[in-house]
Amino acid sequence: MKGIKRFFRAEDGVSAIVVALLMVVFLSVAALVTDLGIAYYKRTELQSAVDAAALAGAYLLPDQEGASAAARNYLQLNGVNPANAQITFTLGSRGNSIIRVGYAQQKRSYFANVFGINTLNYSCNAKATTGIRAAKGAFDYLLFSGSPTGTLEMKTNFHIYGSVHSNYNFTTSYRNGYIEGAAEAVGTAYANSGVVVGALISGAPFVPMVSFTEVINQMVPTVFDQSYWLPAVNLVAADNCMYFTGRTRIYGGGNLVLKKGMKLTGSLYVEGNLYVYGANIQGEGGNTCILMSDTSVLYVTGSIYVEKNFKGAGSIFAGGSINFAGGSDKLTDKKPLTLYSSNGNITLNVGSTHGYGIVYAPLGNVSVGGGNTTWHGSIIGNTISYIPANLTMYANDVQLPFIIGSRTAFLIE
C-alpha cells in the first residue's frame, strides 16, 4: 500500500505539466474561436449593409448614377465606408437593370496571432433588381365601385362570371341577373328575387383603389423619335387624317385638335387636351374617328374627346376625362383595350361586341353604353352610372401588355 502511494506522489509533477500544456491548447483554441466568432459577426453585419445598399440602389434603376449614390449612402448609414465599395451594373435576361454591390474587408485579429494569423479577410456581395408585385384590391373584381357614398346599382340584365364590390351599397333594380361569385358591399348588399348570386355579403371590408403609376412607367415612353412644340393655343390639323407611327411627343400644354380623325400604330404623348373630330381614315368608312393597333399607346395629360367612333385596341391613358361620344365603338377581338383616367370620367359605347381589358377611373365615373356586350376583364370606377343592357362579364383571358401593381426591389444573389 505504501508503494502505491509513493507512485502517485511521484506522478504529481507530470500531471501538473500535462494540465499546463492542455490549458495552453484550450486557451489557444478558445482565442481562435473568439476571433472567428467576431469575424463571423462582423461579416454578417457587413452583408446586411451590402444587401440594404443594393436594394436601395435598385429602386433608382435604370438611373445608374442615382442608384450608385443611393447604395453608397446606405452603406454610410450602416457604418461602412462607401469609398471602398465596388458598384457595377449589368442587364438581366429580361432586359432589366441589375446593380451589384461588393465589399472586401480586413480586420486585425485579437488572439489568433499566436497561430501567425494577424488579419482576417472576408468579402460580401449582393445583386438586386426591380420588378412589379402584382396588385389585388379592386382588380380582384369584375365590376367595382370605389365611392364610400355611391351605390352600385344594376339597372339591366346581366351575367357576371366573377365577383362585384361596392364600397357603399349594392342593389339590383332589374329582376333578371346572375353573379357567379360574391356581390359585396361595405354597407348593404341587396338583390331582387329573380337575381341569382353566389354570395350576397353586407358589411364587407373597404377595398382601396390600386395605383396605376407603375403601369404608366411600363407603357409610356420617355425617349421619342420625334417631338413637336405645341404652344398653349390650339393646333388644328384640318385637312387630312393624322397618322402617328413610332414614338411621338407633342408638348407645350396646348390643345391638339384633329379635324379628320387619327390613326395610331405607335406611341403618342400629348401635353394638353386631345380633340378628334371627323372621320377620314382610309378604308374605314365615315364613322371611325380613331383607329388604334393593339400595341399602340396614347397618353394625354389632359382630357380626350372623340366625336365619332373608336375602333381597335391598345392602351389609352389620360389625366382628365375620356369621352367617346360616338354611338358604336368597335373593339378588336381577342386584343386588350385599356382605358385609364387618373382624375376624370370615362364614357364609351360598346354595343354588340366583345371587349377585352380594363376600364379604370379611380376618381371619376364610368359609363359604358350599348347592349348585348360581353366584356372580358374589369370595369372599375369611383362610381359606375351605366352598364350595357344584357351585359356578360368574364375574367380577362388575354395577356395585358403590363403588370398592375407596385414596383419593388429584390435580391437575386
- In terms of quaternary structure, the protein is single chain
Number of helices: 3
Helical content (DSSP H or I, runs of 4+): 10-25%
Task: Please give the largest β-sheet.
Answer: 6 strands, parallel, barrel
Distance between the termini: 72 Å
**Kindly state the mean pLDDT as a whole number?**
85
Overall 3D geometry? flat
Low-confidence stretches: none
Report the radius of gyration as a whole number of Å: 33 Å
Q: Enumerate the strands of the largest sheet in spatial order, edge to edge or round the barrel.
A: 4-7-9-6-30-29
β-strand percent reads 35-45%
Alpha-beta content class? alpha/beta
Total beta strands: 31
Précis, in short:
This protein is of the alpha/beta class and 413 residues long. The protein contains three helices and 31 strands. The mean pLDDT is 85.
